[in-house]
Amino acid sequence: MENSVLLVQKKEHICTLILNRPEKRNSLSVEMLVKLAETLDDLSQNDDIRTIIIRGAGEKAFCAGYDIGALNFDETSESSEMTEHSNPFETAMEAIVNYPYPVIAMVNGYAFGGGCDLAASCDIRIAADDVRMGMVPAKLGVVYSLNGLKRFMRVIGSAKAKELFFTARTYHAEYLKQIGLLNYLVPKPELESFTYAMAEEISSNAPLSLKGIKRNINIINQSTDISKPEIDEAGQLVRSAFLSNDFKEGQTSFFEKRKPHFKGD
Predict the structure, then answer these.
(1) Which of 51, 62, 91, 190 could be disulfide-bonded to 199 (CB atoms 3.0-4.6 Å)?
(2) Domain limits of the chain?
(3) What's the farthest any 2 CA atoms get from each other in the chain?
(4) 216 to each of 100, 101, 166, 220, 245, how far by Cα in Å?
(5) Do the strands 61-63 and 132-134 form a parallel or antiparallel pair, or are they unpaired?
(6) pLDDT tens across 159-203, in order?
(7) CATH number of the domain at 6-207, out of 2.40.50.140, 1.10.1060.10, 3.90.226.10, 3.30.450.20?
(8) pLDDT class for 259, splitting at 50, 70, 90?
(9) Using alpha carbons only, how large is the chain's radius of gyration in Å?
């Protein structure tokens, strides 16, 4: 269905998932996140699809991040739900990480916030050489989740993850490749053919090898132990930020296209 927020296209052992909200720069809505998680779960039930490609609809944006207008928290709202492991965003990202076969992000346009995290959740990231990406929670008064930070640290390490999150800068493609967030930079006209050629190469390999290698890498990545009190503390930091005046100011300034004036409360 062309009007769906997530388009699914299958060809042999490759499935392309298209984030389909071009009018919203393919920003992530709850509906899209739920469909993404459900689709990956359905595809994982058999071995037909051995490579997933995720891309954005249109030519400008891969994904502009979580739909800022949908973030509206108070003490009685869904704030606690959105900061737990089972919230729609985390469920979708973990579905990507844990999909039994390789997942490729075809970054065909800019990616910010949750869109950048979505790309980081994939196994391989191939981007057009003119893309820009960044993590902007510090400009919105948001404390990023423990799981999200861990995903970035696994890909680019602690030092570069700190720079990415502390500065909230927009970075150009060359630097993103230099720090390891992107695997390949390709001229935009060649991006699709390059990505599908790699997907075909991957999907022609032994299914048991692909599944076993990905699972073992995930086991290694998840080997760091974090205590229950530390997990609770991290969750409380996220919730407190969502309920703060700074978050309201960050959200307002985003829509008013001005610099935020944070006060630390």
Answers:
(1) 51
(2) 6-207
(3) 55
(4) 11, 12, 31, 6, 43
(5) unpaired
(6) 999 999 999 999 999 999 999 999 999 999 999 999 999 999 999
(7) 3.90.226.10
(8) confident
(9) 18
